[in-house]
Write a structure and sequence with these properties.
The protein is an alpha+beta fold. It has helices spanning 30-42, 52-59, 95-103, 106-113, 133-144, 146-149, 166-170, 181-184, 190-219; strands at 13-19, 72-79, 83-90, 126-130, 163-164. The chain has a single domain, classed as Transposase IS200-like (Alpha-Beta Plaits), CATH 3.30.70.1290. It contains nine helices and five strands, in the order βααββααβααβααα. Helix 5 (133-144) crosses helix 9. The longest helix is centred in the last third of the chain and has 30 residues, at 190-219.
C-alpha cells in the first residue's frame, strides 16, 4: 500500500474527501447519514471512546468535547449520497489521521446493516493542504454548497438528501458543529458571506460545465 504524500501539521487546514467504491451509494437513508454525522462529533476526542453506543450511554446527552480535547476542528462539511467533503484543522500530532481512522468504522456499520462485505470507500481518504487564506474561503464555499455543485435534490434522483454546514453558517441559532467563525469572522456579516459563497458557486459550476463540455468534445 502506497505512502500518503500529504503530511498533516497542527494548525493547518485540509480539504478531506472520499466517495463510495465504484461511485456506489454510501448513505441509503437518513439514519445512515445521521450515524456518520454523529461519528464526526463523538469520535473527535483525544481519548478513545470505544463505540458510539458506549459514548451515548456515558455522556447521556452531555456537551461535546472542548477545543483542548479535540483531534481536529471541523470547519465545514457536506455529506452527499455517494461521497463526502470535510474541511479539517489538525489540533494535535496525528489528530487528523486518527480522526479519519475512527470514521472508517462506518464501513463496519454499513456492511453489517446491509449484509455485505468488502471495501465501502474508494481507497484511502483524499486530503489536499489548504495553503492560503483565499483558498480556504473558496473551499469553504465549495464544501458548504457541494450538494448544489452536483445538483442533488434537483434533477438527480437520490435515496437521501445531502447534509451540509451551509445552514449552520447562514442561519442564526443553528447547531455548532463547525468552528465557523474562522470563516465568518472575515466578513462583515452573514449576508456578505452568503453573497461571496454563492458567487463562488457560480464560478465553480461554470468551470465544471466547461470541463464536461471539453471531455465530450474529445470523445466525439
Amino acid at each position: 500500500m502506497g505512502t500518503r504524500k500529504t503530511s498533516f501539521a497542527n494548525g493547518e487546514f485540509y480539504h478531506v474527501f472520499n466517495r463510495g467504491v465504484d461511485k456506489r451509494i454510501i448513505f441509503t437513508d437518513k439514519y445512515d447519514m445521521d450515524r456518520f454525522f454523529k461519528s464526526l462529533i463523538e469520535f473527535n476526542v483525544v481519548d478513545p471512546i470505544g463505540s458510539l453506543y458506549e459514548s451515548s450511554r456515558n455522556q447521556c446527552g452531555g456537551p461535546t468535547a472542548t477545543k483542548e480535547e479535540r483531534l481536529v476542528n471541523i470547519i465545514a462539511y457536506c455529506l452527499n449520497p455517494n461521497h463526502y467533503h470535510l474541511i479539517l484543522e489538525q489540533l494535535v500530532d496525528g489528530g487528523l489521521s486518527e480522526f479519519m481512522k475512527r470514521l472508517g468504522g462506518y464501513t463496519w456499520y454499513f456492511n453489517n446493516k446491509y449484509k455485505r462485505s468488502g471495501f465501502l470507500f474508494q481507497g484511502k481518504f483524499k486530503a489536499i493542504h489548504i495553503d492560503s487564506n483565499e483558498y480556504l474561503l473558496h473551499v469553504s464555499a465549495y464544501v458548504n454548497l457541494n450538494d448544489r455543485v452536483h445538483k442533488y435534490g434537483g434533477p438527480i434522483a437520490t435515496p437521501v438528501e445531502s447534509k451540509s454546514s451551509w445552514a449552520e453558517y447562514t442561519e442564526a441559532g443553528n447547531n455548532r458543529t463547525c468552528e465557523k467563525e474562522i470563516i465568518l469572522g472575515q466578513f462583515e456579516n452573514i449576508e456578505e458571506y452568503k453573497e461571496f459563497a454563492l458567487s463562488s458557486l457560480e464560478s465553480i459550476i461554470q468551470r465544471k460545465q466547461e470541463l464536461e463540455d471539453f471531455d465530450r468534445f474529445l470523445l466525439e
